[in-house]
Amino acid sequence: MGKEIDVLLVQEVKGLGKFGQTRSVALGYARNYLLPYQFAILATPANQLRFKAIEKREGKRVEQEKLESEALAASLNGKKIKVSASAQENGALYGSVSALDIVDAIKAAHEIEVDRHWVVLDENIKEVGDFEVTISLPQGVSASVSLSVTAEVKEAKASKKSSK
After folding, report:
1. Chain centroid to CA 120
2. Quick one: the chain helix, strand, coil %, rounded to 5?
3. Which of 28, 69, 103, 148 qualifies as a FRET site for 91, CA 20 to 30 Å off?
């Protein structure tokens, strides 16, 4: 086999390891992929010390991000939002309510910014009704909001029927 080199992973690399682990990898893999894209650093004594500083800074960042996520979850939990969409008489929507619609409704109703990737939907909502929607925030924090999907009132159809 070719030459191998020890590297410290400064972030998770799928199939190789997690943040903080030391791994022996092929020299070419380290030189052409891990090091240039800053997924790892060489496992030298000087870099071991440098890595400890990175690890400490990363720990503080993660802790701060978790506190921010918990505060956002506290402000989101139990909030009620409404989305109206055009629907058939049987309650089935002509379109669907997506994560983006939910994010827009949260912002309009409560002035809270939520990333659409945080909204957990198995599939888009395709019927009128009440739903519990989970918001999965960074660092494993989650919140739950109540979503009420209502049918849009069609003024044009109602006026045509009354004029006949």
Report:
1. 8
2. 40, 30, 25
3. 103
Query: CATH no. for residue 93?
Result: 3.10.430.100
Cut 0.90: pTM above it: no
Query: Tokens in use for 10?
Result: 């400064």
Q: Is 22 helix (H, G, I), strand (E, B) or coil?
A: strand
CA distance between the termini of the chain:
86
How many residues belong to the chain? Answer: 164
> The domain containing residue 127 runs over which residues?
74-155
Mean pLDDT over 97-101 rounds to 93
Count of domains for the chain: 2
Buried b (16+ CB within 10 A) or exposed e, 76-86: beebebebebe
Residues 96 and 139 in one domain: yes
| Paired residues of 6 in beta bridges | 24
Tokens encoding 34: 């891990």
Query: What integer pLDDT is reported at residue 53 of this predicted model?
Result: 84
Query: Do both 60 and 116 map to the same domain?
Result: no
